[in-house]
Every structure is written in C-alpha cells, then in structure tokens.
Amino acid sequence: MSAVRFDGVTKRFGHTIALHDVSFGVEPGEVVVLLGLSGSGKSTLLRHVDGLHTATSGTVAALGTDVGQARGARLRDLRRRIGFVFQQFHLVGSLSVLENVCTGGLGRLRGPRLGLPSYPKAVRLEALGHLERVGLAPQAFQRADTLSGGQQQRVAVARALMQRPEILLADEPVASLDPESSAQVMRLIREIAAERDLTVLCSLHQVELALAWADRIIGLRSGRVVLDQPARTLDHTAAATIYGGAALVGSA
Fold first, then answer.
1. Segment 44-59, tens digit of pLDDT
2. pLDDT, tens digit, for every residue of 174-218?
C-alpha cells in the first residue's frame, strides 16, 4: 500500500485551478521531491496530504486514510503521524530551542503547557535527543531567535521528529537559506529518512538539490504533473520539461 496516493485530484480556488487531475503514489520510505516554479501547485499538493486543503474532485489517501473523508479524532490521529517542515520555520523566537522542539509532542499530551518545566521529563529528554541528532544539543537553552536560519530549520526538523511521524512533508524547506545551509538541511532530511524508514514528500525549486537528494522527482507545471521519474535518470535536459524552457542549473 502506498504511504500517499493521489487519484485524479483537482483543486479549484474560485476560477483558479491549482491542481489538475493529479495522480501518483509515494511508497513507504521513499524520498520524493516535487520540483517546479513558484505557483506550480507544489504547496497546494502538500497541504492535501494532511487535510489542510480538500480536493475539489478526486481522492487523497495517506497511511491508508481517505484524507478528504477524515474528520475529528480520525483527522487528528492522521495529523499526528505526519510531520510538516515549512519554509519560514514557524518557531516561537522568545522560547528556548528545547521548548520549541517539545511542542512537537503536544499531540500526545493532555492539557496546555506553560513553560519548559511543564513538559514531562521523558518528553524533554526525547526532545534533547532529537536536538542531538540535528547537531544542536549545545544550543538547547538558547532563545530560538538567536540561531541562524539554517540552525532554525534544523530545529524545525527536530520538532517534526517529536511527532514520531511516518510521513514528513517539507514545503520549500531551504528556500530562504544560503547554499551551504540548504545542503546541510537536505542531507539531514535524507539521512533521517533512511534511519527511520520515513516517507518524505518535499517541494523544491532548486534542480541541483533535487537531483542530489531525491529518490524520485515529480515535476509540476501549472498544477499538472509533467514529469515523474527516478532522480538518477533525470538530467538538466529533462528539467527543461518541468520549467517549460531551457534546463536550469541550481535554481528555478
């Protein structure tokens, strides 16, 4: 069974068609990159996987659940199994790095949490372990807003791991980072996926990063799938198909 499955998915926002008859599956443990220009439908597609958007027509299944039909506790349970890393990090800058990571475990805790000591010791230790994995344990008690952009994105990855996800969604996770930090974050995502047999669906517009880190690349243009093939078989000539022009090196 596919970890994620799109079958004939179309999404309309008023008169705008954001996705047009999209069909593909993602196998468990596969690292798939959605490649395309801004506005090609990448973010919209990702938001269908955990129910942030609902298809106008067609079906989306994640971990055996029809996402469009999931409601209430069933949808909350699905979302606990899906981690999401965003372009803008979405950390609380005034909180410590460790507390930001702890918030990733809120889905399995009862009641509100006020301050780091209010989290169970087991949760704090687990969060510290994830920070160790992303190379930021020494920064655990710093304010999140004192970190560099690349460090903040690594904290966001650690926070997503606190959900103990089976699927990791990453929406342009390196778009605001310099090339060195971008490579570090993508390498981290790839390594963690291998360690945990984690299914990854990641949107990018940088061709080089997609070629370096994906098992498979799905190209989107104007909401349509225009390419779907293993990354090892994709060159920059094929990338021209995605962008509708000459092959691009490094970024779109």
1. 999 999 999 999 999 9
2. 988 999 999 999 999 999 999 999 999 999 988 889 999 999 999
Residue 127's contacts (CB-CB under 8 Å, 6 or more residues apart) are: 98, 101, 102, 104, 105, 119, 158, 162
Task: Report the run of H or E that residue 130 belongs to, with start and end.
Answer: helix 121-133
Residues in the chain: 252
**E-strand spans in 101-230?**
167-171, 199-204, 216-221, 224-230
What six digits make up the tokens of 4?
């994620």
Its pTM stands at: 0.91
197 vs 202: CA distance, rounded Å: 15
More confident residue, 249 or 108: 108
Report CA-CA distances (Å) from 19 to 48, 57, 130, 169: 11, 10, 35, 18
Contact predicate 145/93, CB 8 Å: yes
